[in-house]
Amino acid sequence: MFDFLHLLDFRETGPTYKLVYKLMAVIFLSSLLIITLMPGAVQAEEPDVGAGPGEEAALDIDIIVMIAYIIIILVLFILEPIRLDLIAVLIPVGLVFLNPWTGIGSEEALSGFSNSATITVLAMFILSEGIQKSGLVQIIGDKISRITGGDEVKQIGVISSLSGTLAGFINNTPVVAIFIPMVTDLARSTNISPSKLLIPLSYASTMGGMLTLIGTATNLLASDISDRLIDRPFNMFEFTHLGVLVLITGVIYFVTIGRKLLPDHIKPEEGLVEEYEMEEFMAEVIVEKNSPLVGKSVGETLRESELDMDLMMITRGGEQFIEPLQAKSIRQGDRLVIRSSRDTLMQLMNREGLRFRADYQVSEDQLEEPPRGQKLVEVVIPNGSYFADQSLADVNFSERYDTCVMAVRRGSELSHSSLDDIVLHPGDVLLLLVNDPTLKRLRRRRDVIVAREMEKEDYRREKIPLAVAILAGVVAFGVTGIVPIVISALAGVLIMVVTGCVEPTEIYEAVNWEIIFLMAGLIPLGTAMELTGTADYIAGQFLLLAGGLPPLGILALFYLFTSLVTNVISNRGSVVMMVPVAVDAALRMGAAPFPFVLAVTFGASTAYLTPVGNQVHLMVYGPGGYDFMDYFKVGLPLQLLLAAVVSLGIFFFWGI
């Protein structure tokens, strides 16, 4: 039988299938919006629909233009012809050009950049950097191995609980980034597949983001929209009790049902040689006297050969030379360690005067403890990376970083050939041979995450009490309302810098600017949906399609629909589009709008059906060797379980 869902595995099966998945997502979401253009919902007499403030809304040219514009934005978000932050900048520009229909002027279009939610998120990135640089998370991670030993259930439970709890107070991206190398090392040292631990780490961190207002940028954005629409922003611990319930549910799920659904793609007993299947792709050759390569530089040789290969090391008279090798001349008798396929190696020897050393066999020690300060490391390409959607050749990766790229892992698939031509995607893992200066440069960059830690980073552990106190102060002032959370967060940033918890040069690197621009660009879109009556109109159509479900059923439907939308676009985008619709739908039913705002907020942050539901899901994609179906199989039962828990929890705590 044809495996239809295999089409969705766009990261495993290549660009064609990636395009298929994206086109399917475009068609699905666009169809839903086009359905809203069918008149009738707002005029239909539904017994459960009250006299909400938007009841008189009718389909007009303004709404048609807005829905068409939203479809265009969705298509751009899904297909990503340009970077997401650039798409976000286009949104307010387009709204101003469409001013006769959207009512958005330049002041409203730029309101997202001065919005308190945007500034608070920017400040929280820097506060999270201070906690990360202190080494607190690393210390906690190191203690996990001593607590859990080799017990898989304990490991999953402790990792999920700790990552979720930490993500309630600092951004989940650095939490997952720090935990990845710790978890992979723990898995191998206790003979457990890292595939069993990394999805729980990622999913739990997003659940933990729902513990506090500052747990995720989405919460701050939803709070701002809620304040504007119904004069009800979130306080710091507004939904902590529900967030705790969600996190506990997730942890219990992963140590019971979820654990049985988690794959074990990467075998724990495998070392780097076996894991990356390097035996077939490394060989040593000896340069013969009559070889035309004698006297040529390595760079010249590689350019002229036009073969898919990398020269990793030259051994000459007992001395070894490793990257950078481009300017190194080749001499008679040199022993060259080459990464290539056997077919490529045969072509090279047939025409270049090289002799294959048949007794050479790559060993684990040679890879894991390379000579002269070289280190073998894995790095992950995160979402929003400069290297994403570019090939290694485009960014001149090997020469820029004095490194040899040995293999690329995309999910469960490995690539050893034509590496320079591979277009990198978020979630890809690169196996690199690097020197100490290169490793330090890679650790400083936000464009890659060093996933397998070969040495400990120098943390400012003497700053731990101070960094924790600053973050606690920010939270305390935000809770008491002495000053707005945005002011306390900015004050916290200033104190972090003055006290040396964060260096001034680290401030801008700490911020995920893609998220900042995304928030700033999306905020005016929500304003336009309200001004034109588009949100009210869509709410009417939503209630018509709901078929007269009771309010609790519609609440659950909003949670599920928002999580579904978030699985194909950003969680911030789904909040901007869905919160106004949820508010208007609640008012139409005569229900309290705040519970519906919460349902959308939780749905946007707990999307678990695809690896694109949240950027941290992509961060574990390569290190765990996952494919699309792993996320779907593990995430579907969890998504349905949380739909019940969140809906019933909202009903119990806040009523409808």
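That was protein one. Protein two is written in the same sequence-then-structure order:
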Amino acid sequence: MPVVSPVLRISLSGIAKLAKVQRPVVSMWRSRTAATESPFPSPIATDRGRELFDAYEVATWMLSTGRGNNPDAVADAAMYATFDGLTPGDSVAFGALTALITLRATHGTSLSQLDRDAILDLADEADPDNLFLTREVEAVEQDLPAFARFVDVLVDSAYGAAAAFESLLAERFRDGRRTLTRVALSPDMTALIEALAVELVRSNSAGEPDSPTLVDPTGSGGDLLLRAVLAMGEDADVTVVTADTITDAARLLRRRLLVHGIPRRGFTVSEAGVFDLKDAAIHIAQYPTAEEPTASPAAILSSIENIALQMDDSQRAIIVAPASVLVDSGLARDAEQIRASILRSGRVRAVVRLPRGLVTTNQRQALSVWVLGPAHADIPLGDRWTMTADLSDGALATDTRLDLVSDLAAAMGDRRTVRSHSFRFAHPTMTSGILARSGSLVEVSTTVTHNAVVDEPERSPLARDAAAIPARVDGMLAAMGETFPLSPGSVSPATTRQTLPLATMGNLAREGHVRCLSGTRLRAEHVGAGHGFIVIGTDELTGRSPVGSRTADRLLFADSYPAGRLTEPGDVIICTGASMRAWVDREGSSVVAFPARILRISDSDPAGLLPDVLAADVEAQRSSDWKRWTVRRIVQEERAPLTTTLATLRSERAALLDRLHQLDQLTDLLVDGVAAGSLTLTGTDADSNLSPKGTH
């Protein structure tokens, strides 16, 4: 029968991709060629206000006019276009297209030469049990010939069925396929998981690196599973095992594996989540799934618990889920109990909080990764540890991914492996301490004792080499000699080390030890330079303006800002952004200008916080989220002496700055006086004198 080429429609953004140019370039082509002999082709349709063009007409026009950077534009046009039978968000048509691409891959020849009944027979032959494509083909039975023609064009344009399949998936965001985009991950995230899967396969002594088994217990995690399989390399004999669920996402995954030539084995998951798997497998599971994108934390954690309970010691698991489920505080009681149960099992060997922006359609959501493996059978429950890492404020650049994967692979080892590995991001944390926390699982607060992993406390950005400090102080005392501003014997090495553990500001705020108060949004006309309240904002904190140079009239402030607040003595004023700045307001009664903020320590229960120490710690932070800051605390016995000593050092520093200012002024006056002839210098040694000109 005659074959009619389908009409391919392409949007302006699709044209830009086809031409390999930026989107504004296409608009420029349209405007600049409108009055020429070869104008840009006219649109043939519109879809929700979006103009659509004939893809072949545009591709031909680009080649004839020499525009764009794709000499194969005509052949590639189908990869960036749709045909009239497919509308954005049409899940039925999308399922049919992916099914027909899979059918063509298994059949080995084009489909456009076949009529409707022949295509249906071919589908029934390829999938007699209706597990992956028969239902999707039958859903467009009346339009099968048109769909088949488009599939042939698309496969030929993409130079293969697998590439054509992936090109359809790549357009899921533009086409508004919510079920496929709500849980889609960024390339950096999928690259991290594929690298981690490869490393876990290589480091698993119970498995076979050349013939690994990868398992998707959800049955629908196509992106992560496929990337992990392909990352194993062409020489690896990979076995893929997925759950025999009947959801649309599970059927799509089976088609995707088949079109890539990846053999699959299924397994049954009971309604209670029970399954039987004996291989030395690597489980890869992402939650929520495409089929249940709004699953509750309790439902997600129940699924993860099923995986943990049914793993044996030869198996590993990579779990990806929102940080709000795996790491953060605030879970409902039922979900919290399930999470605690999984942690108590000992199989959670590493917990990582990742930065925001790794979920393609939800840039504000933060993800976390759990790595599961065998529990430390030879270590008492009270001495077991979990490696934790917080990458909230970084980015998953290539070097970060490599070092994190190295840390996580080492976390699967025994005590000797952990001791010998130089961790960049992860650190050992007592599992009992994690279970006792009310805040984030990855905060720095619990020290691993020598009975467990290491002989030193956890490291943090605020960590100091405490053992070396006394010797360094002695060196400074010797260098300063009599100019040392403190009395002899006022500083000496401690006979016993007394410290409070590091704490996060979020926990301290929840427990009422500190508050973060917003600054006042001052109007420019209300800020002057006369008498009134001193105004402190980012200009003062960053040094662009001296403290005291800006003021707000007292009566005007009270009248215009009834909710405005003044500082109290000891408040720490902060600003965040490109650099962290903090300043202690010792006098109080200042106005803090937004976006600067106030950290106010509780007078009744400061929990070891001191304003000067807190200000120093703020400037050492990297995160702009103040609740995630890790800060030091001072034991009660040292609070008063440290406060007094710091006051003495500040006074000495102020006197030296005043002396330096006087020397600078004297330098300028000497230069000006001698140059003007009003001063003369009578000598060059230490006893030199200077006098007004003409007195000698």
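DSSP finds 25 helices and 24 strands in the chain. Keep this in mind for the problem set.
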